[in-house]
Amino acid sequence: MTQSESVHDLLVIGGGINGAGIAADAAGRGLDVVLCEKGDLASATSSSSSKLIHGGLRYLEFYEFSMVRKALREREVLTRAAQHLIRPLAFHIPRLPHSRKFWMLRAGLFLYDNLARRQLYKGSRSVRYFEDGPLNSAIRHGFEYWDSQVDDSRLVILNALQASAQGATILPRTECVGISSTRQGWQVRLLDRLRDVESVQSFKAIVNATGPWVASVLENLVENSSPQQLRLVKGSHIVVPRLHDGDQAFLLQHVDGRVVFVIPYLQQYSLIGTTEEEFAGDLGDVQISTAEITYLMSTVNLYFKNSIVRSDIVYTYAGVRPLVDEEGEDATSVSREYLLDLDTSAHPIMSVYGGKITTYRILAEEVIDQLASFFPGIKSPWTRTAKLPGGDFELLETLFHDIASRYAWLGSDLIARWQHSYGMLSFDILGEATGLSDLGVRFGANLYQKEVDYLCTKEWARTADDILWRRSNLGFSFSGEERSALDKYIKQSFAALS
């Protein structure tokens, strides 16, 4: 066991979107920050979303006007910060007899268009559907509105990179196993799960941003009871071959009133979700249920000409949302607004309850604002106008041209993937490369050694799955043999980093 003599300012526990965002905000304000995460970054709820940056149209039904306004404002902020990662997307709402009434949808979309200043997104409109479209013949009318698609796990990584660039220490695969109060502050035991080495460090304050584990961290490590009752709600998705040729997504209304998204995904697929099912199992083993699969398929088959069957499903995933419990409310109507709880009875410890990907930045800003009084001389908030790593360019089309003009030999498919994943970081990664031979070994799909080396040395990747599922979205394109070869290369080449 090693022990640090110095006292750090802030420990952030949890490497999801909230934790990474908080670490970035705090480090940029001049705090000495350490972030620990027991698994890989974005390995739980933050990589199991519907991959959307959105205001949350359906939350207007529950009069969540303030939350929707906040999310719509953040939609604009985040799009400006990472336009390589966040792509505006049209959403269609086709209507069947059981759908919400015309006037209700029209009124909701009017509010959605006008609750917050809108610069980067188009307004809503009515649309007509014809026989040659993908929807069944009973559907003739609907609406169109706009939100955004995002690579959720890469958004976490970019925030971790931003935090690191501001001086934060990022420790994936490092579990917080003990917290005790001393005269100096919090004494924390951190277990490096790769090396099986434990260290003791001291902090002035702690942020508990562990998502569904927030209550258990308080109860098991701090020995405090959680002031909030959590409602754990599982959301599951299925991925099938592309259901339609158009670029638009669909918001489908089930007969029970809930909604399901059908979203174009990785050119070849459609992403379908999400569900809302109470969860009381092992948070380390969250799986889609047969009932959820049936529910998602039946919703899609109400609307699309080409029905899907179980054998069409190429991938499933599920995550658990930690919602603040509201007695008597069902899972659908429980608020998605976050709640921050600051306990100063010993030393400052902030617990984060709930939250959405779309509002992570403003959540992080509010967390550090509430902790600011404990850190004299802390700097002002800064992330509202900051670009995320790779996002410092004007137009996406210009970025593609700039990459192509220097690295034309990459080919359009690889340029497009790098453009959306790395933005301006593409130039740092590729450097002086002049041909594919300079990229080294090709592991499969269009993943080359140079990219792997970058992801391991700069983005904390330690396994093939880290790269294929949380940093590149190439998991669908890799065979088991190719994945094993990639894993072997990482273990042999980067053992010293582990």
Explained architecture:
- With 498 residues, this protein is an alpha+beta fold.
- It folds into 3 domains: 168 residues, FAD/NAD(P)-binding domain (3-Layer(bba) Sandwich); 159 residues, D-Amino Acid Oxidase, subunit A, domain 2 (D-Amino Acid Oxidase, Chain A, domain 2); 102 residues, Helicase, Ruva Protein, domain 3, CATH 1.10.8.
- The protein is 30% helix and 26% strand.
- It is built from 13 helices and 20 strands.
- The strands form 3 sheets. Strands 3, 4, 5, 6, 11, 12, 13, 14, 15 and 16 form a 10-stranded mixed beta sheet that branches. Strands 1, 2, 7, 8, 9, 10, 17 and 18 form an 8-stranded mixed beta sheet that branches. Strands 19-20 form a two-stranded antiparallel sheet.
- A hairpin with a 2-residue loop joins β19 and β20.
- α1 packs parallel to α4, α1 packs across α7 and α8 crosses α9.
- The longest helix has 17 residues.
- The protein is globular.
- The two termini are 17 Å apart.
- The mean pLDDT is 95.
Give a brief rundown of this model.
By secondary structure, the chain is of the alpha+beta class. It has helices at residues 17-28, 65-81, 102-114, 152-165, 214-222, 290-303, 360-371, 396-406, 412-422, 425-430, 449-458, 464-470, 480-493, and strands spanning 2-13, 33-37, 52-53, 86-94, 125-128, 141-150, 169-172, 174-181, 186-192, 197-208, 230-241, 249-253, 259-265, 269-273, 277-278, 315-324, 339-343, 349-353, 442-444, 447-448. Strands 3, 4, 5, 6, 11, 12, 13, 14, 15 and 16 form a ten-stranded mixed sheet that branches.
